[in-house]
Amino acid sequence: MTRWLRIFFVGGLIAYRGLFNWIRPAIYIPTMLGAPLFQLIFFTKLGEYANAEDASFYIVGNAVQVCAMASVYGMTMAVANERWFGTLGPLLASPANRAAVFLGRGVPVFANGLLVSAFGFTVGAVVLGFRPGWSVVPALAAVVVVTALSCTAFGMLLGSIGLRAKDFFFAANLAYFLMLLFCGVNIPIESLAPWMEAVGRCLPLTHGIIAAREVAGGATLADVSGLVWTEALVGACYAAVAFGLFRLLERESRRSAVLDAY
Amino acid sequence: MLRVIWTGFVMNVKTLSVSSWFVLMAVMQPVIFATIAFYMFKAGGQEGTLLYAALGAGMMGIWSSVLFGSGGMIQWQRWQGTLELGVASPPSLTLLYLPFALSNSFVGAYALVATLLWGRLFFDVPLHFVHPWNFALAVPVTVLSLALMGLLMASTFILYRHANALSNLLEYPIWVLSGLLFSISLLPAWTHPVSYVLPPYWGIQSIRHAALGGPVWAPLAMTVLLGALCLAGAWAAFSWFERLSRDRATLSLT
User: Is residue B254 part of a domain?
Assistant: First the structure.
């Protein structure tokens, strides 16, 4: 168990430092903080112009959603970049527990997602005047934690696909943009076409965003527990499928000798 | 000179048209944003503004294509080791990179076609333009002006190692400041002068007025003027930064 935890935490951290060694403040700040800042302003002002919902609807939706920028892209890269960097072979040749290797990579990515989302809420408060009161912060934080976990699991699935797919950045980008549309970030989920709503309810973020809006509106964590558990369940399903796919593609890549092939 | 521009333009349009990244930026992303805007305008009871949203989302796609194309223009050459060859070739850098900028913007114009068709097919957006001929003129002029703005940006990216990261940052701010999907009157007054020096601000005004009614020629003239200033700025910046990077031996930045 100690070894499992060591691989999970220390291995995950070292893998993150290795795979994201190119991150500098000059890259991180514009990409992970600048882009979410302006995304929040853009959709809040667009909502104001369209006269559709009040500002808090967009601020909460986008502040939660921006965690996907770190979670989805980051997790995709945390898995798929092993192939890009040519380190997938040595990694898979090691006897390390695969679940610890795979899930451990999610920890720093998840932490980064939380940071980005917290920054989003700070921007909402400072720039856009979103002040729900300190009393809701713990419940809001709990909802964001579960949502970021769920998004990280979704990123794991995309990363697993990236072990074999040629253009996984395309898939990650497309998924990110589609989440903006399908997950009720800027449109109430029930306003979407029925098939879009059905898709949205199977994606991470959707239930978390609804829960976060209710909490910001004064609901307690107990009031939204159903939504939070559903979000957690969606995330768990994605994590399970991602891990299964990771093992399947690992086995198939070894069998077909296409581990590092592009 | 025309041969350099034409050959470079055709080659880059072909390259970009088969790039999944550019298809995402120039077709899929604008369609997704247009759909979000359609739903938001419908929810706000402003269905008459769906054409407004389609035009704005299309322009957003053009800007994304120009932005990421410009950010990557120098960087990709640097990674491929061809930047030095370009600098050493007889044509000026401005002339060499002008076709890249034109092709980025031209491919971005797919976005406008995509959002208008998408709106027509799935949201019954009426494609009735008040001044169709002016519209047919305003679109290419705006595309050209954005290409020149992209050229100016690319020229300043020569000395910047993380130009791609800057591209990630600049997408939303220009959408906001240019009023592509909503009026800049919603923004603080101190931001308005910034909007007035942006070609996309005047470009979308001319396109929107040509489609929905309103004065076309004044914003179109501003689009042309700012595009010309961008070209002059790009020429000066390319000459200066090229000289600097050769002096300091930092052209490759690797």
Answer: no
Alpha helices in A67-186 (DSSP H): 67-68, 74-84, 88-93, 98-104, 106-126, 137-161, 168-182
What is the ipTM metric for this complex? Answer: 0.89
Does position A156 have pLDDT exceeding 80, yes or no? yes
Q: With a cut of 70, which residues of chain B have pLDDT below it?
A: 47-48, 158-161, 163, 252-254
| A187–B40 CB contact, under 8 Å | yes
**Domains of chain B: total:** 1
Which long-range contacts link B50-54 to residues 24+ away (Cβ below 8 Å)?
B50/B119, B50/B123, B50/B124, B50/B125, B51/B119, B51/B125, B51/B126, B51/B127, B51/B211, B51/B212, B52/B208, B52/B212, B53/B119, B53/B181, B54/B115, B54/B116, B54/B118, B54/B119, B54/B125
Look at residue B146 and tell me if it is in a domain: yes
Query: Of A43, A249, A48, A260, nearest to A158 (Cα)?
Result: A249
Residue A126: give the domain boundaries.
2-256
Q: By residue range, what is the domain housing residue B206? A: 2-6+22-247
Task: Compute the distance between CA of residue A113 and CA of residue A211 in angstroms, rounded to an integer.
Answer: 18
Phi, psi of B44 (to 5 degrees): -85, 5
pLDDT at A9 over 90: no
User: Which residues does chain B have within 8 Å of residue A188's beta carbon, measured at their own beta carbons?
Assistant: 43
Could you give the number of structural domains in chain A?
1
For residue A51, give how far its alpha carbon lies from the nearest alpha carbon of chain B (Å): 5
Residue of B nearest to A173 (CA): B24
Per-residue burial over A84-108, b if 16 or more Cβ lie within 10 Å, else e, is: eeeebeebbeeebebebbbbbbbbb
Query: Best interface-test mutation with B: which of A40, A46, A66 has the largest number of B CBs within 10 A?
Result: A46
Structure tokens at A251: 């086995």
Q: Which residues of A touch B37 (CB under 8 A)?
A: 46, 50
In contact, A201 and A189? CB cutoff 8 Å: yes
Contacts of B44 in chain A (CB under 8 A): 50-52
d(C-alpha B78, C-alpha B35), whole Å: 37
Both tokens of B204, joined, read 């979308």
Q: Which helix (H) or strand (E) holds B160?
A: none
- Residue A261 in any domain: the answer is no
Predicted pLDDT of residue A261: 64
Per-residue pLDDT, A161: 85
Query: Which residue, chain included where needed, has tokens 């935490």?
Result: A9
pLDDT tens string A167-207: 777 888 889 999 999 999 999 999 999 999 999 999 999 99
How many CB atoms lie under 10 A from the CB of residue B237? 21
